[in-house]
Write a structure and sequence with these properties.
- The complex is a heterodimer.
- By secondary structure, chain A is of the alpha+beta class.
- Chain A has 5 helices and 14 strands.
- In chain A, the strands form 3 sheets. In chain A, strands 2, 3, 4, 5, 6 and 7 form a 6-stranded mixed sheet that branches. A 4-stranded antiparallel sheet of chain A has the order 11-10-12-13, with helices on both faces. In chain A, strands 8-9 form a two-stranded antiparallel ribbon.
- In chain A, helix 2 packs across helix 3.
- In chain A, 45% of the residues are buried.
- By secondary structure, chain B is α+β, with helices and mostly antiparallel strands.
- Chain B has a single domain, classed as GHMP Kinase, N-terminal domain (Ribosomal Protein S5, domain 2), CATH 3.30.230.
- In chain B, the strands form 2 sheets. Chain B has a 5-stranded mixed sheet. Chain B has a 4-stranded antiparallel sheet with strand order 7-6-8-9.
- In chain B, strand 6 and strand 7 form a beta hairpin.
- Chain B is globular, with a radius of gyration of 18 Å.
- Classes of the chains: A alpha+beta, B alpha+beta.
- At the A-B interface, strand 1, helix 2, strand 13, strand 14 and helix 5 of A face strand 4, helix 1, strand 8, strand 9 and helix 4 of B.
- Strand 13 of chain A pairs antiparallel with strand 9 of chain B.
């Protein structure tokens, strides 16, 4: 069951200052409304994973590990590999994260990252078949939140795409008796797109990109728009207690379009 | 499921004979449950959804109570027999996500600040699903909230716009959703002129997106009319009695 959650209120002095700055198009950390914090991406930080990436955006840190195993295909898609995305909001990342099964926020985040990757056909699933209908590759994308200072979706989305683009695919050989054996050999994971999510929040009637935790707590609503390398929209999600006007959504889409291609250009140039 | 290749025929009509901008037939019944403080039942295409609202009542367990507003609890749940293949009654990840987005689609219209430390429950049971069940559930939930006498800024009307055979179409059915290229559910609050739910999966160009937004808004306004009519019907009936 989904329940309205308590947001941690900002101190009065901080919220007043934030609002005063916003009125003149500035933010507490000195950014403009449409600026991202500094983004750092480090690939291959976990050697045992087939792909991994650590993304930091300001104080937000998200690690994604990609494990690739074999298994049965989905019954309705016998000639495709499988993809699952899961997110863990580990307790070390934030004082209000509790251990236990994934809550609605981590499920929402995982499903949003999943939609971005799946709908843009980032991984060529048809190339992930070992024995049609029987044995396929299963790509597990596990999102690990390490430090929470807002905008987990973009950090997770970037880490996931970076880990996938750099992942290696273990080669399997099918013996004549049908036995599948793992070779000591790797090829790159077949990738064909590069979806980039852009998250914005609305405070008063201002749209801000890449919100910090304080900004998320002040915001009435949040919107994530994910765009493919060809500039198509492939995933979208509104969250939060408030709502957007049509004009705001149209504006947000334009912002997301610009920001996603800037990020793609900067970090994933060789992939597009 | 039988394999259907073409979703739009040579006359531009869809599998169920609808035009691209035509919503499925909607039937609404309000106040059908005796125990709930408010309830509504909706049929939209083959969707059959029942919604009950309880509250405002004392927050239980106490720790979920908020000092400045009512806590809204929302559960979207599909009956095991509501789908082609039996669905386990345990809440799936999809249902957990949908419960959250439905709650957040309804929160903006509820005067929650009138009821601090209390809770308002919205229980949604999908008895039969046919694509677009989250939207139909939102449409019905806002009516159940109204039926419970909870002060609202307006009703919320919801409808999806998707892409089938490369063309934009409103209110996708099950088959269209599965075989289509994109789906974008939207909830609209006419009085506030605001969108309280927007999700998307699939592929939209910028142009398609703008067009889809407007188509969704128009479809929501049609549904809004039907909602108001259903409320009036119920209200007039009560007056006669």
């Amino acid at each position: 069951m989904s329940v309205t959650s308590q947001v941690e209120p900002l101190t009065k002095i901080k919220s007043k200052r934030m609002m005063k700055l916003l009125a003149s198009g500035k933010r507490l950390d000195g950014r403009g409304l449409l600026d991202y914090r500094e983004i750092k991406i480090e690939n291959g930080v976990v050697e045992k994973a087939e792909g991994s990436a650590l993304v930091s955006m300001g104080n937000t840190k998200v690690l994604v590990g990609v494990k690739i195993e074999t298994g049965q295909p989905y019954p309705d898609l016998p000639n495709q590999g499988a993809l699952t995305v899961n997110a863990e909001f580990v307790p070390l990342a934030y004082k209000y994260f509790e251990p236990g099964p994934p809550d609605e926020n981590s499920i929402e985040l995982a499903r949003l990252v999943d939609r971005g990757i799946r709908e843009s056909k980032t991984i060529d699933m048809e190339k992930l078949v070992i024995i049609p209908g029987k044995e396929v590759y299963v790509v597990f994308v596990d999102v690990y939140i390490l430090d929470h200072d807002g905008n987990l979706v973009d950090a997770a989305g970037l880490a996931a795409i970076s880990a996938i683009l750099n992942a290696k695919l273990p080669v399997y050989r099918v013996k004549e008796n049908g036995e599948v054996i793992k070779m000591d050999e790797y090829v790159p994971l077949p990738v064909q797109n590069c979806p980039i999510p852009v998250t914005m929040v609305k405070i008063d009637d201002k749209i801000l990109v890449d919100p910090t935790l304080d900004e998320e707590n002040m915001a009435s609503a949040k919107l994530t728009i994910t765009l493919t390398k060809n500039g198509e929209i492939c995933a979208m999600q509104k969250s939060g207690l408030g709502a957007f006007t049509l004009d705001e959504i149209v504006e947000a889409q334009k912002i997301a379009r610009k920001k996603s291609s800037e990020i793609r250009e900067k970090f994933f140039r060789e992939w597009c | 499921m039988t394999e259907i290749k073409k979703l739009i025929d040579e006359n531009g009509l869809r599998v169920d004979g609808r035009k691209l901008d035509e919503i499925r037939p909607i039937k609404i019944e309000i106040g059908l449950l005796a125990n709930a403080d408010g309830s509504a039942y909706i049929e939209q295409g083959r969707n059959k959804i029942i919604v009950a609202v309880y509250g405002p009542r004392e927050a239980q367990p106490k720790h979920i109570g908020l000092h400045d507003r009512a806590a809204i609890r929302c559960r979207y749940h599909m009956a095991p027999f509501s789908t082609d293949e039996r669905k386990s009654p345990a809440p799936s990840r999809r249902e957990i996500e949908i419960s959250k987005v439905i709650r957040e689609a309804l929160e903006p219209v509820i005067f929650s600040e009138y009821y601090p430390r209390s809770m308002i429950d919205i229980f949604i049971e999908v008895l039969q699903s046919d694509g677009g069940s989250r939207c139909a559930a939102i449409t019905a939930s806002s009516l159940a909230l109204a039926d419970a006498g909870i002060p609202l800024k307006d009703l919320v009307a919801a409808c999806a716009v998707g892409k089938i055979d490369g063309k934009l179409a409103v209110d996708l059915s099950d088959v269209e959703d599965k075989l289509g290229e994109a789906d974008m559910p939207i909830a609209y609050i006419p009085a506030l002129r605001k969108i309280s739910l927007i999700q998307m999966d699939g592929i939209f160009t910028e142009e398609e997106f703008f067009k889809a937004l407007n188509m969704a808004k128009d479809a929501c306004m049609k549904i809004y009319k039907i909602q108001k009519e259903a409320l009036k019907q119920k209200y007039l009936q009560t007056e006669k009695e």
